[in-house]
Amino acid sequence: MATFEKHYIGKGTQVENYDIVKVVIPVEFIEEAIFENKKDGKRYLSFEIAKMKNPDKFDRTHTCYYQTKVQSEQPADKVPEKQKKADKKKKKKSEPAEDDLPF
Q1: Which candidate, 42, 44, 10, places its Cα nearest to that of 26?
Q2: For the chain, N or C: smaller number of CB within 10 Å?
Q3: pLDDT for 92-101, tens place per residue?
Q4: 29 near 97, Cβ under 8 Å?
Q5: Which segments in the chain show pLDDT lower than 70?
Q6: How many helices (H) and strands (E) does the chain have?
Q7: According to the model, what pLDDT value does residue 71 have?
Q8: Contacts by residues 48-57 (CB-CB < 8 Å, ≥ 24 positions apart)
């Protein structure tokens, strides 16, 4: 099962009277967030900016992070078992074996 792990790389502040968020990110975090597209070989930077519930002590209102896909194994007790297909062929009624006869 795949899940996503968040890596926080910076914080930002809402610009007064505008729908703009100014974000400051250290360069070393930018380098970690860069990925290469296998199809075209280009490198990209992808990150999200989310509004925080409450401003921090520096009055920053937004947080910035990138996500990575993490593969995790499903616990053994939750792995679905393969269902056996019902045998659709009709079985012929066989003669009882000699040991099964009542006399």
Answers
A1: 10
A2: C
A3: 555 555 555 5
A4: no
A5: 74-103
A6: 1, 6
A7: 84
A8: 49/12, 49/21, 49/23, 56/11
Structure confidence at residue 103 (pLDDT) = 46
Instruction: Beginning with the edge strand found earlier in the chain, give each strand of the sheet holding 62-71 in spatial order.
Output: 21-24, 2-14, 62-71, 48-51
Residue 91 confidence (pLDDT): 53
Q: Is the CA virtual torsion 50, 26, 4, 37 positive or negative?
A: positive
List the beta bridge partners of residue 51: 62
**Nearest CA among 49, 58, 36 for reference residue 9:** 49
User: Which distant-in-sequence residues (6+ apart) come within 8 Å of 20 by Cβ?
Assistant: 14
Of 2, 6, 13, 3, nearest to 67 by C-alpha is 6
Question: Sign of the CA dihedral 21, 23, 55, 15?
Answer: negative
